[in-house]
Design brief:
By secondary structure, this protein is mainly alpha-helical. The protein has a two-stranded parallel sheet with strand order 1-2. The chain is globular. The termini are far apart. It comes from Xenoophorus captivus. It holds the Pfam family TFIID_NTD2.
């Protein structure tokens, strides 16, 4: 368990977590509607991993403020997970928590169009926001597809699981 949690020890300035998350939120709210729904999917896994990094590194007051400020922005289908997460306020609480271990050991799957992905990547590189980019690269599996960005209703139909969406390969069972 400690090995699983130790990845959270790589962290930046705790005072900047709110700034980074708010900045990304402002950016996503400013993009064209067709990209907003897809890019908004990044909020939940990012929120969880940033919160857990703060808790793991004993920044309890920053973690509490971060949770209070941004937990209400998450989709309603994550309500139960957020309730569990809110009870993890100290590093000791993280040990042996099944929800946390599931979230920590499997990459959160996001399906987004190539255009939406490029927008996100360009924004983070321009802002030199390595904190968020590192979390995305380490904890998310981004399934990029060519084509039109998906609508909010298309995304909602596939979302809500603790691990994000199923990887497309998971649905390709061999038929004999």
């Amino acid at each position: 368990v400690n090995v699983v949690l130790s990845a959270y020890s790589q962290q930046g300035d705790p005072a900047l977590y709110e700034v980074y998350y708010s900045g990304l939120k402002k950016f996503i709210e400013s993009v064209l509607d067709c990209h907003r729904a897809e890019l908004s999917q990044v909020f939940y896994p990012l929120f969880v991993h940033m919160y857990l990094e703060l808790v793991y590194n004993n920044h309890e007051s920053e973690a509490k403020a971060f949770f209070e400020k941004f937990s209400g922005d998450q989709e309603c289908y994550y309500e139960e997970d957020l309730r569990v997460l809110s009870s993890l306020t100290k590093k000791e609480h993280m040990r042996g928590n099944e929800t946390l271990l599931d979230f920590r050991t499997s990459k959160f799957v996001l399906r987004i169009s190539r255009d939406s992905y490029q927008l996100l990547k360009r924004h983070l590189q321009e802002r030199q926001n390595n904190q968020i980019w590192n979390i995305i690269q380490e904890h998310l599996y981004i399934d990029i597809f060519d084509g039109m960005p998906r609508s909010k209703s298309q995304i909602d139909a596939m979302s809500g699981s603790l691990a994000g969406e199923a990887k497309r390969e998971a649905n390709k069972a061999k038929v004999e």
